[in-house]
Amino acid sequence: MSSMSKKIDSARKDLTKALKKHAAIVGSSAVSMKKAQRAAAEVHLAAIKYAAEVEAKTGLTSPFGDALQPGLDTSTLASLTAERDAIAKKPRKK
After folding, report:
1. How many CA atoms lie within 13 A of 36 on its CB side?
2. What is the crossing angle of helices 33-58 and 74-89, to 10°?
3. How far apart are CA 40 and CA 34, in angstroms?
4. Residue 48: which of 71, 22, 25, 23 has the closest Cα?
5. C-alpha radius of gyration, the chain, whole number
6. Which of 14, 62, 68, 78 could make a disulfide contact with 51, Cβ separation 3.0–4.6 Å?
7. What's the pLDDT at 23?
8. Cα separation, 8 vs 55, whole angstroms
């Protein structure tokens, strides 16, 4: 598997994780609007990352078509990206 394929697989796993988290939040009996919006933003960012990795590897445009229209301003998206990256770098408790 080439390094790009590993990046695509990693981005796919992140997207799957974000979708599962979103589904759990919006599927609960008491839906918090703030949590739902944050989870939706995480799905959006993960989908953008996945599409970017696919495009970098294949030259193909996003498999999501027009579904990735930004709903958050650039600074919010940047903040969420930085927060996600910081969490990913933290050592996990065993």
Report:
1. 9
2. 80
3. 10
4. 71
5. 14
6. 62
7. 96
8. 10
Residue 90, classed as helix, strand or coil, is coil
Residue 73 dihedral angles phi and psi, to the nearest 5° = -70, 165
Helix (H, G, I), strand (E, B) or coil at 2: coil
The answer to whether 16 and 50 are in contact (CB under 8 A) is no
Element (H, E) at 74: helix 74-89
Query: What are 32-71's pLDDT values in tens digits?
Result: 888 889 999 899 889 988 988 888 888 888 887 766 665 6
Residues in the chain: 94
Distances in whole angstroms, Cα of residue 6 to Cα of each of 9, 18, 24, 53, 54: 5, 18, 27, 10, 11
C-alpha neighbours within 13 Å on the C-beta side of residue 78:
3
SS3 content of the chain, % helix, strand, coil (to 5): 75, 0, 25
Q: What is the DSSP string of 36-53?
A: HHHHHHHHHHHHHHHHHH
